[in-house]
Protein backbone atom coordinates (compact mmCIF):
# COMPACT_ATOMS: atom_id res chain seq x y z
CA UNK A 1 0.00 0.00 0.00
CA UNK A 2 1.38 3.42 -0.95
CA UNK A 3 2.15 5.97 1.73
CA UNK A 4 -0.40 8.77 2.12
CA UNK A 5 2.04 11.48 1.03
CA UNK A 6 2.45 9.85 -2.38
CA UNK A 7 -1.20 10.54 -3.31
CA UNK A 8 -2.29 13.48 -5.43
CA UNK A 9 -5.60 15.33 -5.17
CA UNK A 10 -6.78 13.61 -8.34
CA UNK A 11 -6.44 10.24 -6.60
CA UNK A 12 -9.41 11.17 -4.37
CA UNK A 13 -11.67 12.17 -7.25
CA UNK A 14 -14.88 10.16 -7.52
CA UNK A 15 -14.88 10.26 -11.33
CA UNK A 16 -12.57 10.83 -14.26
CA UNK A 17 -12.44 14.37 -15.65
CA UNK A 18 -13.61 13.12 -19.06
CA UNK A 19 -16.66 11.60 -17.35
CA UNK A 20 -17.45 14.92 -15.71
CA UNK A 21 -17.28 16.91 -18.94
CA UNK A 22 -19.21 14.21 -20.77
CA UNK A 23 -22.18 15.01 -18.53
CA UNK A 24 -22.27 18.56 -19.93
CA UNK A 25 -22.13 17.20 -23.46
CA UNK A 26 -25.04 14.86 -22.83
CA UNK A 27 -27.03 17.61 -21.13
CA UNK A 28 -26.44 20.05 -23.99
CA UNK A 29 -27.54 17.41 -26.47
CA UNK A 30 -30.68 16.68 -24.48
CA UNK A 31 -31.72 20.32 -24.13
CA UNK A 32 -30.78 21.57 -27.59
CA UNK A 33 -31.89 24.01 -29.03
CA UNK A 34 -32.72 25.72 -25.74
CA UNK A 35 -29.19 27.11 -25.34
CA UNK A 36 -29.50 30.03 -27.80
CA UNK A 37 -32.77 31.03 -26.13
CA UNK A 38 -31.10 31.00 -22.72
CA UNK A 39 -28.24 33.16 -23.99
CA UNK A 40 -30.77 35.61 -25.42
CA UNK A 41 -32.67 35.60 -22.11
CA UNK A 42 -29.44 36.35 -20.28
CA UNK A 43 -28.87 39.33 -22.54
CA UNK A 44 -32.38 40.62 -21.85
CA UNK A 45 -31.83 40.20 -18.11
CA UNK A 46 -28.65 42.27 -18.37
CA UNK A 47 -30.44 44.96 -20.35
CA UNK A 48 -33.27 45.10 -17.82
CA UNK A 49 -30.84 45.46 -14.92
CA UNK A 50 -29.05 48.25 -16.75
CA UNK A 51 -31.94 50.49 -17.76
CA UNK A 52 -35.21 48.62 -17.48
CA UNK A 53 -38.41 49.68 -15.79
CA UNK A 54 -39.33 48.54 -12.29
CA UNK A 55 -41.33 45.67 -13.75
CA UNK A 56 -38.52 44.68 -16.11
CA UNK A 57 -35.98 44.66 -13.29
CA UNK A 58 -38.26 42.55 -11.12
CA UNK A 59 -38.66 40.06 -13.97
CA UNK A 60 -34.89 40.09 -14.44
CA UNK A 61 -34.44 39.17 -10.79
CA UNK A 62 -36.96 36.36 -11.14
CA UNK A 63 -35.10 35.21 -14.25
CA UNK A 64 -31.87 34.98 -12.26
CA UNK A 65 -33.74 32.93 -9.68
CA UNK A 66 -35.02 30.57 -12.37
CA UNK A 67 -31.45 30.26 -13.64
CA UNK A 68 -30.67 28.52 -10.34
CA UNK A 69 -33.65 26.18 -10.50
CA UNK A 70 -33.09 24.76 -13.97
CA UNK A 71 -29.50 23.50 -13.36
CA UNK A 72 -30.77 21.77 -10.23
CA UNK A 73 -32.81 19.49 -12.47
CA UNK A 74 -31.00 19.53 -15.80
CA UNK A 75 -27.48 18.94 -14.51
CA UNK A 76 -27.25 18.22 -10.79
CA UNK A 77 -30.16 15.79 -10.58
CA UNK A 78 -30.24 14.26 -14.04
CA UNK A 79 -26.49 14.12 -14.74
CA UNK A 80 -24.25 14.83 -11.77
CA UNK A 81 -26.14 12.50 -9.45
CA UNK A 82 -24.95 9.58 -11.57
CA UNK A 83 -21.30 10.24 -10.70
CA UNK A 84 -21.42 12.08 -7.36
CA UNK A 85 -23.39 10.84 -4.36
CA UNK A 86 -23.82 14.36 -2.94
CA UNK A 87 -25.38 15.75 -6.12
CA UNK A 88 -29.01 15.41 -4.88
CA UNK A 89 -28.07 17.63 -1.94
CA UNK A 90 -26.48 20.11 -4.31
CA UNK A 91 -29.69 20.10 -6.34
CA UNK A 92 -31.74 20.82 -3.21
CA UNK A 93 -29.42 23.71 -2.35
CA UNK A 94 -29.88 25.18 -5.83
CA UNK A 95 -33.67 24.98 -5.51
CA UNK A 96 -33.48 26.67 -2.12
CA UNK A 97 -31.31 29.42 -3.58
CA UNK A 98 -33.78 29.90 -6.43
CA UNK A 99 -36.56 30.44 -3.87
CA UNK A 100 -34.44 32.87 -1.87
CA UNK A 101 -33.58 34.90 -4.96
CA UNK A 102 -37.19 34.89 -6.16
CA UNK A 103 -38.38 36.20 -2.79
CA UNK A 104 -35.65 38.83 -2.80
CA UNK A 105 -36.47 40.00 -6.33
CA UNK A 106 -40.18 40.21 -5.56
CA UNK A 107 -39.86 42.10 -2.29
CA UNK A 108 -37.01 44.41 -3.28
CA UNK A 109 -36.77 45.34 -6.95
CA UNK A 110 -33.09 45.57 -8.02
CA UNK A 111 -31.91 49.12 -8.56
CA UNK A 112 -30.65 50.01 -12.07
CA UNK A 113 -27.00 49.01 -12.18
CA UNK A 114 -24.55 48.90 -15.06
CA UNK A 115 -22.25 46.79 -12.92
CA UNK A 116 -24.97 44.17 -12.38
CA UNK A 117 -25.71 44.14 -16.10
CA UNK A 118 -22.05 43.66 -17.03
CA UNK A 119 -21.73 40.96 -14.36
CA UNK A 120 -24.58 38.99 -15.94
CA UNK A 121 -23.16 39.44 -19.44
CA UNK A 122 -19.83 38.06 -18.27
CA UNK A 123 -21.47 34.90 -16.93
CA UNK A 124 -23.75 34.53 -19.96
CA UNK A 125 -21.43 35.34 -22.85
CA UNK A 126 -17.88 34.80 -21.59
CA UNK A 127 -18.18 31.72 -19.40
CA UNK A 128 -19.17 29.27 -22.18
CA UNK A 129 -16.05 30.28 -24.10
CA UNK A 130 -13.70 29.56 -21.22
CA UNK A 131 -14.04 25.84 -21.75
CA UNK A 132 -13.13 26.26 -25.41
CA UNK A 133 -10.02 28.17 -24.40
CA UNK A 134 -9.17 25.27 -22.11
CA UNK A 135 -9.35 22.88 -25.05
CA UNK A 136 -12.82 21.42 -24.61
CA UNK A 137 -15.28 21.25 -27.53
CA UNK A 138 -18.27 23.56 -27.79
CA UNK A 139 -20.50 20.53 -27.17
CA UNK A 140 -19.28 20.60 -23.54
CA UNK A 141 -19.84 24.33 -23.03
CA UNK A 142 -21.23 25.45 -19.69
CA UNK A 143 -24.29 27.51 -20.58
CA UNK A 144 -26.07 29.99 -18.32
CA UNK A 145 -29.26 28.57 -16.73
CA UNK A 146 -28.22 24.99 -17.57
CA UNK A 147 -24.76 24.62 -16.07
CA UNK A 148 -24.38 25.48 -12.37
CA UNK A 149 -21.22 27.62 -12.44
CA UNK A 150 -22.29 30.44 -14.81
CA UNK A 151 -25.75 30.41 -13.24
CA UNK A 152 -24.30 30.79 -9.75
CA UNK A 153 -21.97 33.57 -10.85
CA UNK A 154 -24.76 35.45 -12.63
CA UNK A 155 -26.88 35.25 -9.48
CA UNK A 156 -24.44 37.50 -7.64
CA UNK A 157 -25.69 40.38 -9.80
CA UNK A 158 -29.02 40.33 -7.97
CA UNK A 159 -27.36 40.24 -4.55
CA UNK A 160 -25.01 43.15 -5.23
CA UNK A 161 -27.86 45.58 -5.75
CA UNK A 162 -29.52 44.87 -2.41
CA UNK A 163 -29.01 46.11 1.10
CA UNK A 164 -26.62 43.79 2.92
CA UNK A 165 -29.05 42.75 5.66
CA UNK A 166 -31.84 41.98 3.21
CA UNK A 167 -29.75 39.79 0.93
CA UNK A 168 -27.70 38.14 3.66
CA UNK A 169 -29.59 34.78 3.67
CA UNK A 170 -28.98 34.42 -0.08
CA UNK A 171 -25.19 34.72 0.08
CA UNK A 172 -23.98 31.45 1.71
CA UNK A 173 -25.12 29.01 -1.00
CA UNK A 174 -23.48 30.72 -4.02
CA UNK A 175 -20.30 31.36 -2.01
CA UNK A 176 -20.18 27.72 -0.92
CA UNK A 177 -20.88 26.46 -4.44
CA UNK A 178 -18.12 28.58 -5.98
CA UNK A 179 -15.66 27.26 -3.40
CA UNK A 180 -16.78 23.68 -3.95
CA UNK A 181 -16.71 23.97 -7.73
CA UNK A 182 -13.25 25.51 -7.62
CA UNK A 183 -12.02 22.66 -5.40
CA UNK A 184 -13.51 20.06 -7.76
CA UNK A 185 -11.92 21.63 -10.82
CA UNK A 186 -8.63 22.01 -8.97
CA UNK A 187 -8.72 18.32 -8.09
CA UNK A 188 -9.25 17.59 -11.79
CA UNK A 189 -6.19 19.79 -12.46
CA UNK A 190 -8.25 22.19 -14.58
CA UNK A 191 -6.66 25.55 -15.34
CA UNK A 192 -10.01 27.31 -14.92
CA UNK A 193 -10.42 26.12 -11.32
CA UNK A 194 -9.70 29.64 -10.08
CA UNK A 195 -12.64 31.23 -11.93
CA UNK A 196 -15.57 30.37 -9.58
CA UNK A 197 -13.69 31.28 -6.37
CA UNK A 198 -12.38 34.50 -7.93
CA UNK A 199 -15.91 35.41 -9.00
CA UNK A 200 -17.12 34.91 -5.43
CA UNK A 201 -14.26 36.99 -4.02
CA UNK A 202 -14.95 39.72 -6.57
CA UNK A 203 -18.62 39.77 -5.54
CA UNK A 204 -17.67 40.11 -1.88
CA UNK A 205 -15.17 42.86 -2.68
CA UNK A 206 -17.78 44.72 -4.71
CA UNK A 207 -20.30 44.40 -1.90
CA UNK A 208 -17.87 45.69 0.71
CA UNK A 209 -16.94 48.67 -1.46
CA UNK A 210 -20.61 49.63 -1.88
CA UNK A 211 -20.31 49.80 -5.67
CA UNK A 212 -22.98 47.16 -6.26
CA UNK A 213 -25.74 49.70 -5.69
CA UNK A 214 -24.23 52.37 -7.92
CA UNK A 215 -25.80 53.17 -11.23
Secondary structure: number of strands: 0
What would the principal axes of the Cα set say about the shape? globular
H/E element string?
Answer: HHHHHHHHH
Largest beta-sheet characterization: none
Share in helix:
55-70%
Q: Determine the mean pLDDT.
A: 90
Structural class, from secondary structure content?
Answer: mainly alpha
Figure out the total of helices. 9
Distance between the termini: 60 Å
Rg from Cα: 17 Å
Strand content: under 5%
Low-confidence stretches: none
Could you characterize what this model shows?
With 215 residues, the chain is mostly helical. It contains 9 helices and no strands. The longest helix is centred in the N-terminal third of the chain and has 24 residues, at 54-77. The model has no long low-confidence stretch (mean pLDDT 90).
In brief:
This protein is mainly α.
Describe the secondary structure blueprint for this structure:
Blueprint: H1 17-31, H2 34-51, H3 54-77, H4 87-107, H5 114-133, H6 148-160, H7 164-167, H8 172-187, H9 195-209
Helix pairs in contact: 2-3, 2-5, 3-4, 3-6, 5-6, 6-8, 6-9, 8-9
Features:
mainly alpha; 215 residues; 68% helix; 9 helices
Amino acid sequence: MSEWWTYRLSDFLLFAPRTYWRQFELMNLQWWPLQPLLLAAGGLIALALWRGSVRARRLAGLGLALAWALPAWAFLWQRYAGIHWLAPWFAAAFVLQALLLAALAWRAVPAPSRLAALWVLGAVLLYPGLGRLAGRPWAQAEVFALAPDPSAIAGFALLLGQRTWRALPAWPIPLAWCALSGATLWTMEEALAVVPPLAALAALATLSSGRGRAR
